[in-house]
Amino acid sequence: MEFKDKVAIVTGAGQGIGFEICRLLAARGATVLLNDLDDALAGKAADQITTEHVGNCTAFAGDAGDFAFINNMVDAAINLYGHLDIVIANAGITLFGDFGTYTPEAFYKVMQVNLAGTFFLAQAASNKMKLQSTGGAMLFTSSVVGHQALKSLAAYAMSKAALEMLAKNLVVELSQYKINVNTVAPGATLTERTMEEEGYERIWSEIIPMGRAASVTDIAETALFLVSDKARHITGQSLIVDGGWTSVSVLPTGIK
Fold first, then answer.
1. Mean pLDDT of 71-81
2. Fewer CB within 10 Å of terminal CB in the chain, N or C?
3. Alpha helices of the chain — where are they, by DSSP H?
């Protein structure tokens, strides 16, 4: 129960990596505010976690890229539980597209959710954490494509690389308040979405040095370490979880 008495917000958590992070946090004692854009998905996920762990997981559906919603969510956590210890900005969207024809609409949508959503969640949460003698921990979800280029992902990769610089910059803004900020950069991971892509698991397993794509638990366990008391002296860092893929950077082919 290493997260007993901790209160956490996790965005983009109706399924996949975000859901597994919430599940593990609740299993280890945390009170979790689970956010997803899809109201029904958020409610189902929170109910499942609460039933499994007899813990406290509350759904808070809404747009994690919207400034007003972000502030309402942070305020709700404080009003419900009295404090906020952990914030994991996991919400993000991937819009593939050829660089030469990528539209402004697609570009700004990616930036709004991936960048603005994370930036303003960190802002709102840290303003509350500053008032706490215990500070807090924040984690952003980056990606291996913030380190290694992949075709048709220019905008997405740009947003993920920017999150890692945001974490570094917040070191000089927030360390004095006992707030640490890091990023986790997942590689190919088996989620509900990626498993719909034909050949995804086979192709990535062939080119990842450790012989398999990540599970959501691989990523979630890393996330929990980075927001735990064990990592209180780690800040401004990005931890890549990719089975060694960025060390060799063999490009995937044939995924549909």
1. 97
2. C
3. 16-27, 39-53, 67-81, 104-110, 117-129, 154-174, 200-207, 216-226, 245-248
